[in-house]
Amino acid sequence: MLPGMPARLFVATPTKLLNFADCKRKYRYTYLETPRPPKGPPWAHNTVGAIVHEALAEFWRWPVSRRTTVEAVNRLRANWRTEGFRDEEQSAKWRERASDMVSTYLHNIDPYFEPRGVERTVSFTTERASLRGRVDRIDERPARDGSGGTELAIVDYKTGRRPLTSTDARSSLAMALYVLGARRVLRRACTRVELHHLPTNTIAVADHDDESLARHLRRAESIADDAAAAEARWHQGLTPAEADEVFPPEPSPLCGWCDFARICPQGRRVAPPREPWAGLDEGDGLVAPEIAEAG
To answer: Which of 24, 227, 264, 285 has the fewest Cβ atoms surrounding its Cβ within 10 A?
Structure first.
C-alpha cells in the first residue's frame, strides 16, 4: 500500500468469520489454499436443507395465484437431489419428510403477504471490515411502538435436529449482522430476529437492542482483525510448519462433521469422519446437527 492510503477493509460473511473462529485450519483449506484440498462427499442433511430453502424462496417469488402448498411441494419433489444419501430408499423417504415440513410450514402462511426481501444480500462497513450476508427472508411489518410506521424482521429458516430457543436467536452472530446490514441497505428500523424451525414448525424470536448489537459487532470485528492478520501472513509466504502455526487445527467432537476431516489427522484422532448420511436422524424424522448445517 502507498503511504497515506487507508487500510483495505477485510471482506467477510458471517460464515467466513465463524469458520475462522471455529478452526483456522478449516479456514485455510476453505479460503486460502490453491488448489483447494479435496473435500469429503456431500452431506445428505445439507441436501435436505438446501432444497427446503430453495422451495420456500421460490414460493415467495411466484405470483400470488401460484402460492399454494401443493405447488410448493410439487416443485420441491421435482427439484429433489440425491447427494449424500445412503441409497434411493433413504432419499425417497427424506423427500417425503421434506415435503411434509414445507407443507406444514406453509399451511398458515398468508400468500398475499409480500416480504421485503427474499434471499436478499445485505451489507455494511465498519472502519476495519466490510460485512455482508444473504438473508433467507426480510419481512416488513407494522411497527410495534404504535407509531404507524414499519419495521423489519430478519427470518432464517432452520432444518437442524435441535429445537431452537430465543437464546439461539439472540446469540446468533449471523442474525445480528443481518440486522445491521438490513438497517444499512433498506433504511428501516430493525431489531427482531426469528429462527423458523421447520421440523417442529416453531419460531424462536429475539429482539436486539443497541447493547446486544454492539456486543456482536465487537466480536465480529475482533474475528475479522485476527483473520486479516493471518491472511496477511499467508500472502507473505509461509513454510508448511509456519502455516500450521498460523492456521492450527482446533480438534473437537465437531471434527467428524468437517468437510476436510479425511485429510486432517488431528481431527480424525478426536472424532472419526461421519458417513454422508449420518446427520439424518432416522428415529425422529428431524434433520441433522445444526453444527453441520450450512447456513
So the answer is: 285
